[in-house]
Amino acid sequence: MEIVEDVSGCKRKKEEDIEDDDTIRRSQKKEPLSLEELKAKLKAEEEAKSKPCFLSKEQRIVEALKRREMEVAMQRKKMDEVRKKRIQFMEEAKKAVKELEDKEREARRGERDRERERRERERAKDKDRDKEELVEDDEEPKVKDKERENEAIKERYLGLVRKKKRTRRLNERKFVFDWDATEDTSSDYNQLYKERHTIQLFGRGNVAGIDLKQQKKEQSKFYGELLEKRRTEAEKEQEKHRLEKVKKKEEKQKWDDRHWSQKSLDEMTERDWRIFREDYSITIKGGRIPNPLRNWVESGLPKSLLDIIEENKYTEPTPIQRQAIPIGLQNRDIIGVAETGSGKTAAFLIPLLVWITSLPKPVRQEDIDQGPYAIILAPTRELAQQIEEETMKFAKVLDIRTVAVIGGISREDQGFKLRLGCEIVIATPGRLIDVLENRYLVLSRCTYVVLDEADRMIDMGFEADVQKILDHMPVTNLKPDTDEAEDETKLIANFKSKHKYRQTVMFTATMPPSVERLARSYLRRPAMVYIGSAGKPVERVEQIVHLVSEQEKRKKLLHVLEAGVEPPVIIFVNQKKGADVLAKGLEKMGYSACTLHGGKGQEQREYALASLKTGVKDILVATDVAGRGIDIKNVSLVINYDMAKTIEDYTHRIGRTGRAGKNGIAVSFVTKDDYHLLYDLKQLVLQSPVSTCSPELANHPDAQHKPGTVVQKKRKDETIFV
Predict the structure, then answer these.
(1) Which domain holds residue 541?
(2) Looking at the domain assignment, is residue 37 inside a domain?
(3) First CA to last CA across the chain, in angstroms?
(4) 84-98 pLDDT, tens per residue?
């Protein structure tokens, strides 16, 4: 408060001083200040400045408004300057463009003027030249006539001989050193020159400077004519028969090389059956296994069954059905290793139905009380019901009764159905033991046992139950554990007798030790059928891929062979000639090699295979003839010197190694012509558990997508053309 009072007092004092000064000025004339007054005045001003002076709110607002107005004015001034500069720049630019256009216009005008002047000069020159030529043309005949006249006078009076000029054509400018054919006079009378003798050389000798093919043709013609002259009639007839025999042999060879689908059943060879099994990825173990089914017509099944198969639209047998049905019809024990959904139900059901239709139908109560002819065990109720549904498709038409013995349904109802009699019982292990222990069912005459999904049953803890069920069956009808269990004739003879052997069929997706133990206990000399994934290589084969050029192949091949590989080795090429050339090259380098391709005769093929199998030869150079149906044991390495044309052929090629549970290596040389296979090749290598995909293959652009697919570019990879 004191400060405010001082400020107000100061203001009043200033105002009073100002009023006094005004009155003094009005009353008196201005006089110059004395030194003391000036000094006092300065002192008073300094004292006033030294004292604090505070502004009111209104004064502060006024000061702020003034400052804001000054800032706005400065900003406007700057904007005006920028606008003026921009306008000035635009005017200068327009002026420069106009000047440039004027210069270009002047230059074009000058160029047009120069062009016009040049044309005028040329036109004037042409006119002058035409005038000169006209003058020359007029003078030239006169000169020539004068010269001719002088020459005629000289010839007439001086007796000059006129030389005749020899005309020469364009093609006669070069001197010809050879004699002309018309100048040769010796050919008319000398027999030696008339019939020239052809130079005959031995081995690979040829005359230099003459076409090699023409020389070989002439030599073969010469020797052919010579032999023809020296042969007797009997020898000529013998040669004719020999050529006919060779021709027939080649035709037979060509006929035998047909695909198995083009042959009848009688024409099928062992090689055809091997190719057939490879096509459907069927692997078999066990002795004397019958050939698989090619189709339902050739199966030899009863007509009633074939009609049901056709009615249910089973057009083609599945791989497991093709091999398991012929084995089942021989009354042999089977172990089938195949995934769920591969048609296993029909594979064991069709032989079972053929078996039951050959047996008498139980009518009397004594026969019914002896139990069913067959039992089918499944790990779950759902699977058992599914098998029952599939069985009913056939059983209804054939008048065969089936009963499902599974949990979740009244045991008494199932016992009542069993008491009425049935031929087939489909059951889960737990409920079947319950029914057996409670005497609802006996297995006195059960001669057919099917274990479906055996590995799953073992995993679910049914191993003891399965053994208990099998122990309920009579041991009198077990097969002998001898070669008789594999003999087709003895098995079929027993099949037609009254006391039949028990047949046990086991299907599983895997073969753990527990399943093998069960099979050894209850199966007699079983035939094992493995169904692999169609079109996929063996998992035990290590696949190695090299991206090389055509020139680097041979060097890379030698590098692979020098790494120390155990024989036998198979090298695949695409052409017959390439196989022969490569084999000769390997022979020169010290390797023991033989060839196998379509151009070889049957004896040569058999010799090549026998040489490789017996160890006489270490390397087989072959085309795709050896890619399928050839079984050579212990092949350690397969080399695709020329990459296969399709990925299926590649799979069959590398399938020559890694057989019979052994490991193998497959090396492939891929050139730029094989880039369309890179995607599928990369997928096979990635799927193989023992193979490693090289970065070169994994990152290759052609291995990123299937051939023929349209790949949409990323925005960053797009090129925009303006």
Answers:
(1) 537-703
(2) no
(3) 79
(4) 999 999 999 899 889
